[in-house]
């Protein structure tokens, strides 16, 4: 035990990296969490309560130290439907049931099977998520205001709605977001160890002040933590909430574990996590989501934008996840006057920059040299992420390997192989 303690060395450099990573992740979480909860029909503050309630537990019990969770768009349809049926108590019920299912998945050791997803599918999922992160910020970065249905899974259609009104672009918003992206890439190139997203935000804020650019800001967050959700269970919930909770648990579990693999891939660690690690991760998020559900807060799953911002800014340990929650709590309780003046397009630029980093450029370069099954799995998964939900996208990518396996099994089966096609000429 003493040897373990002596091997643990938490330096000032590690602390600064975790603090910066947690800060940038919290900055991204604030507008995103508020928006997701609003889409679900919940009070906006609950989108932030998710991170505050779950981060300490996932940091303590989870296996991926830099994976940061929060409210995700993949969970919107399930929770929004529950809110339509039973209000806030419906959201609490479906999330609690989903959390219990995630714990059951852990006990049944189902997480290890999700870890068997082929690497090209994971790379395609990463590329699709990166494109999604970039395209989802087009409206904010360009300042184009159109009636986009954010609950739709077809992000390509949403992006077309924005781009078809590109003539209405506000140059101020475009300049601020472009400065963030350019500043982040310049920082990553010239100072690889510097927190690139933070440098980009600081550059945009400074340039806005010098040029007199005034864009919508984050603003003061004087929000209060909610009380526990009140619920009355009845027999009808067995038929309405349990199936919805199971579906929410499946979507959350797949999203969580695939995101965890993407984050490890992004860190340069190409070794898969142990099979038991995936099961433990599901159990950790299941337990954490029980606490979130008590407040009727949405489910927490792995968020690529926050996790990658954490890594890019130097976060390396579990403390970065804890700091991320602490910063959000500080923003809510103290108002965070300095943060209040950060332009919203600057945060959109951070998300877009991280999305560009996720586009799997190395895979695109060797696409023509890949096996056909790997190339088709990669491309189909990437496109499907933008058009359908995450679970179906992974299933589409894996279907190529299933088809390949069935074809090979068919040709190797003597009962099938002996039936040869007829020839018209001898």
Q: Would you kindly provide a written description of the structure presented here, covering whatever features stand out?
A:
- This protein has 426 residues and is an all-alpha fold.
- The chain has a two-stranded antiparallel sheet.
- It is built from 20 helices and 2 strands.
- The chain folds into 2 domains: 11-151 and 216-225 and 236-342, no CATH class; 365-412, no CATH class.
- Helix content is 69%, strand content 1%.
- The radius of gyration is 23 Å and the shape is globular.
- Helix 6 packs parallel to helix 18 (372-387) and helix 9 crosses helix 16 (344-357).
What is the CA-based Rg, rounded? Answer: 23 Å
Helix percent reads: 55-70%
Percent of sequence in beta strands: under 5%
Number of helices: 20
What's the story with the biggest beta sheet?
2 strands, antiparallel
Order of the strands making up the biggest sheet: 1-2
Structural class by SSE content: mainly alpha
Mean pLDDT: 83
Shape: globular
What order do the helices and strands follow?
HHHEHHHHHHHHHEHHHHHHHH
**Any idea how many domains?**
2
């Amino acid at each position: 035990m003493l040897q373990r303690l002596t091997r643990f060395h938490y330096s000032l450099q590690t602390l600064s990296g975790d603090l910066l990573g947690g800060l940038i992740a919290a900055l991204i979480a604030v507008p995103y969490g508020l928006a997701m909860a609003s889409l679900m029909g919940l009070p906006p503050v609950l989108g932030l309560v998710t991170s505050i309630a779950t981060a300490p537990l996932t940091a303590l019990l989870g296996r991926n130290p830099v994976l940061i969770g929060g409210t995700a768009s993949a969970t919107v349809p399930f929770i929004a439907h529950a809110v339509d049926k039973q209000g806030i108590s419906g959201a609490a019920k479906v999330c609690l049931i989903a959390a219990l299912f995630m714990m059951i998945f852990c006990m049944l050791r189902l997480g290890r099977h999700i870890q068997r997803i082929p690497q090209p599918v994971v790379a395609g999922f990463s590329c699709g998520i990166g494109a999604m992160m970039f395209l989802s910020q087009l409206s904010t970065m360009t300042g184009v205001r159109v009636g986009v249905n954010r609950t739709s899974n077809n992000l390509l259609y949403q992006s077309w709605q924005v781009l078809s009104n590109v003539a209405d672009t506000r140059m101020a918003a475009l300049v601020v977001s472009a400065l963030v992206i350019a500043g982040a890439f310049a920082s990553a190139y010239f100072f690889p160890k510097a927190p690139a997203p933070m440098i980009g935000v600081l550059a945009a804020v400074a340039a806005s002040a010098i040029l007199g650019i005034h864009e919508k800001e984050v603003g003061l967050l004087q929000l209060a933590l909610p009380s526990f959700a009140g619920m009355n269970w009845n027999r009808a919930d067995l038929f309405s909430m349990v199936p919805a909770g199971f579906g929410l648990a499946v979507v959350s579990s797949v999203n969580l574990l695939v995101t965890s693999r993407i984050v490890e891939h992004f860190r340069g660690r190409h070794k898969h996590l142990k099979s038991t690690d995936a099961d433990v991760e599901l159990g950790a998020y299941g337990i954490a989501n029980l606490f979130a559900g008590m407040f009727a807060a949405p489910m927490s799953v792995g968020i690529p934008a926050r996790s990658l911002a954490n890594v890019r800014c130097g976060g390396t340990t579990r403390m970065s996840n804890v700091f991320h929650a602490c910063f959000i709590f500080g923003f809510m309780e103290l108002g965070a006057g300095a943060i209040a003046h950060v332009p919203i397009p600057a945060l959109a630029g951070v998300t877009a920059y991280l999305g560009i980093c996720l586009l799997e450029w190395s895979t695109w370069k060797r696409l023509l040299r890949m096996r056909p099954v790997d190339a088709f799995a990669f491309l189909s998964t990437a496109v499907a992420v933008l058009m359908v939900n995450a679970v179906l996208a992974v299933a589409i990518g894996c279907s190529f390997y299933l088809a390949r396996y069935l074809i090979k099994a068919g040709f190797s089966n003597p009962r099938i192989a002996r039936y040869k096609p007829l020839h018209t000429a001898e």
